Automatic annotation (TrEMBL):
<protein>
    <submittedName>
        <fullName>Multidrug resistance protein</fullName>
    </submittedName>
</protein>
<dbReference type="GO" id="GO:0015562">
    <property type="term" value="F:efflux transmembrane transporter activity"/>
</dbReference>
<dbReference type="Pfam" id="PF25944">
    <property type="entry name" value="Beta-barrel_RND"/>
</dbReference>
<feature type="domain" description="Multidrug resistance protein MdtA-like beta-barrel">
    <location>
        <begin position="151"/>
        <end position="232"/>
    </location>
</feature>
<dbReference type="Pfam" id="PF25917">
    <property type="entry name" value="BSH_RND"/>
</dbReference>
<feature type="domain" description="Multidrug resistance protein MdtA-like alpha-helical hairpin">
    <location>
        <begin position="44"/>
        <end position="111"/>
    </location>
</feature>
<keyword id="KW-1003">Cell membrane</keyword>
<dbReference type="InterPro" id="IPR058625">
    <property type="entry name" value="MdtA-like_BSH"/>
</dbReference>
<dbReference type="GO" id="GO:1990281">
    <property type="term" value="C:efflux pump complex"/>
</dbReference>
<keyword id="KW-0472">Membrane</keyword>
<dbReference type="InterPro" id="IPR058624">
    <property type="entry name" value="MdtA-like_HH"/>
</dbReference>
<dbReference type="Pfam" id="PF25876">
    <property type="entry name" value="HH_MFP_RND"/>
</dbReference>
<feature type="domain" description="Multidrug resistance protein MdtA-like barrel-sandwich hybrid">
    <location>
        <begin position="4"/>
        <end position="146"/>
    </location>
</feature>
<keyword id="KW-0997">Cell inner membrane</keyword>
<dbReference type="InterPro" id="IPR006143">
    <property type="entry name" value="RND_pump_MFP"/>
</dbReference>
<comment type="similarity">
    <text>Belongs to the membrane fusion protein (MFP) (TC 8.A.1) family.</text>
</comment>
<dbReference type="InterPro" id="IPR058626">
    <property type="entry name" value="MdtA-like_b-barrel"/>
</dbReference>
């Protein structure tokens, strides 16, 4: 998935006059994408500036009048009420000029928004509007989408029971993540684990992880389906078993161990990291234990079986 995805929309109303990009190209932050007809907003800005000039002249006049009456006040040639009224009018003129300047700033900002710019650097998509169409500032109409793919993120999920090991290793430093092609034979990109989600999906028992890749050669693309390999620390002297030998019991994972006399024993185990074919067993088994890998539902605790082939808990790295 893209590191950031921006849905570009217009902040002003007007007719699209020009489209300034080519679909699929790389754009820079601040690069112009669309030009919207700005004649109405230019007129509004000119009107706001003219009003500010008019009100500024009124303010200067009020200040001169106030200065004169204050000079006459000590000689009681003007009433205190007249002074107070003129002070109030002068303050009102000050506030009017401040209002005019705010109006000018808003009009200038709207005029600037007629040139729609890219908010970030990324890959621009296909335009979703043509020249001549009118856009409104209060509608959700999207003009174009920009995906930031340098860097890029890959989202994947792991079982919740793997979370403690992942968190422990991530706390010690960056965790290597590989992205592989569909055959798992070619590495497309190498990055690091960037995010562990804040909750486990109760429906699947999985937790989402995000990995980050520089993607300089653009081997990864938003929406692309890939295979991910998360590198955990090597396991030493930990038994591993075929995935097919693990049973889901009421209290967790179980295996069927066969004693030296051929007696079946159901054991609860703690499953660790897995590959496509084998899983580590953190607790419950020892290296060299014999287990049943097929036909598990045909036997139960205490049954006596005849061993026709051997599969033992090994120490292959999962």
């Amino acid at each position: 998935m893209a590191f950031n995805t921006i849905h570009v929309r217009s902040r002003v109303s007007g007719r699209i006059e020009e489209i300034l990009f080519t679909a699929g190209e790389e754009v820079r932050a601040g690069q112009p994408l669309f030009r919207i007809d700005d004649r109405r907003l230019r007129a509004q800005l000119a009107q706001a500036r003219a009003q500010e000039a008019l009100d500024q002249a009124t303010l200067e006049q009020r200040r001169r009048e106030l200065s004169r009456v204050r000079e006459l006040a000590p000689a009681q040639l003007v009433s205190r009420q007249a002074v107070d009224e003129l002070e109030a009018k002068t303050e009102s003129a000050v506030q009017q000029v401040s209002f005019d300047r705010a109006t000018i700033a808003a009009a200038a900002s709207s005029l600037s928004d007629t040139l729609v710019r890219s908010p970030l650097s990324g890959r621009v998509g296909v335009k979703k509007i043509d020249i001549g169409n009118v856009v409104l500032d209060d509608e959700e109409r999207e003009l174009v989408t920009i995906n930031q793919i340098h860097p890029i993120r890959v989202e994947f999920s792991v079982r919740a029971d793997q979370l403690p090991d992942i968190r422990k290793q991530k706390g010690k430093g960056a965790m290597k993540v590989e992205v592989l092609d569909a055959t798992s034979s070619t590495t497309l990109a190498v990055g690091h684990l960037s995010t562990i989600d804040n909750g486990i999906n109760p429906a699947t028992g999985m937790i989402r992880l995000d990995a980050e890749f520089e993607n300089v050669d653009e081997q990864l693309w938003p929406g692309q389906f890939v295979k991910v390999r998360l590198h955990l620390a090597p396991l030493h002297d930990v038994p591993t078993v075929p995935v097919s030998s693990l049973l889901r019991g009421d209290a967790g994972w179980e295996v069927l161990r066969v004693s030296g006399k051929g007696i079946v024993e159901r054991l609860r185990v703690s499953r660790g990291a897995c590959t496509a074919s084998r899983c580590a067993v953190a607790r419950g088994l020892s290296v060299g234990d014999r287990i049943i890998t097929s036909g598990m539902h045909e036997v139960t605790d205490g049954d006596v079986v005849r061993i026709v082939g051997t599969d033992v808990a090994g120490t292959d790295r999962p």
